[in-house]
Amino acid sequence: MKLWALGVGDAFTARYHSTCGAVRAEGATLLVDCPHPIRKVMADARCGFDVGDLCGVVITHLHADHVSGLEGLLFFAHFVLQRRMPVLAHPEVLEAMWDGHLKAGMHQLLQADGSTRELSLQDVAEPVPLSEATATHHGPFTLECRRTIHHIPTFALRIAAAGRTLGWSADTAYDRGLIDWLARADRFVHETNLGVHTPYERLAALPEALRARMWLNHYTDDFDLDASVIEPLRQGHVYEV
Ligand SMILES: [Zn+2]
Q1: What is d(CA 186, CA 199) in angstroms, rounded to the nearest whole number?
Q2: Residue 178 alpha carbon to ligand 1 centre in Å
Q3: DSSP labels, 162-200
Q4: Distance from Cα 197 to the centre of ligand 1, integer Å
Q5: What is the CATH number of domain 2-240?
Q6: CB neighbourhood size of 107 (10 A)
Q7: Which of 13, 105, 155, 156 shows a CA-CA span of 20 to 30 A to 188?
Q8: Contacts (Cβ under 8 Å, ≥6 apart) of 135
């Protein structure tokens, strides 16, 4: 299983793309979160795959830095690929995704005869609900989710395929229970940032054996990558999970 660090920055970054990744196993590629402009984000990583190669996108929560590219991705799939893109998320995220985020820009399409066609989420996406109780299978991937401590409903992930499992914290305050849940994966990515996010110092104080299986993302522009005692994901790099 491989992980592409497509974006590593936070909501206010002037240096990076916002945090997102792509997980590839057994010939399938799953996008994890979707900032705008997602095709440019993917192209900048020279990852060799594009929206048409995705088996789906999993969304952790509806803050714009994680989901602002979804309208473009779904319209690209609708108009260019002429298929519905699977969108995986916890039901609370899926429920708010249309009315609370996408509807304003996507609810109507102008037709050639001047009439308008009303769209719903199901017209442009294939919603795939995740569950906190059971694993969800999608292509070669098995996904589990766990609620994090954040402003709005947000869900960490464990993504398994090809005998390996990747943990992904999503946005969260420091939560030792969540870290233990993530650490049941072979490797895991943890966010770090200011305010309600997880302070780097709390993660740096964890046992070395735990830190050795952790990568960082969602860091501030002035985060010192070279001084970090936990390996930070570097934008555009690909990692073996
Ligand atoms: Zn957030």
Answers
A1: 23
A2: 16
A3: TTEEEEE--S----HHHHHHHTTSSEEEEE--STTS--H
A4: 9
A5: 3.60.15.10
A6: 16
A7: 13
A8: 142, 143, 144, 160
Number of Cβ within 10 Å of residue 112's Cβ equals: 5
Residues 102-144: pLDDT tens digits?
A: 999 999 999 999 999 999 999 999 999 999 999 999 999 999 9
How many A from CA of 97 to the centre of ligand 1?
Answer: 14
Residue 202, both tokens: 């709390």
CA of 198 to the centre of ligand 1 (A): 12
198: its two tokens: 């997880």
Tens digits of residue pLDDT in 38-71: 999 999 999 999 999 999 999 999 999 999 999 9
Q: Tell me the two tokens of residue 104.
A: 């304003």
How many other CB atoms are there within 10 angstroms of residue 95's CB atom? 15
Domain ranges for the chain? 2-240
- Angle (CA) 120-106-172 rounded to 5° is 90
Indicate the pTM of the whole model: 0.97
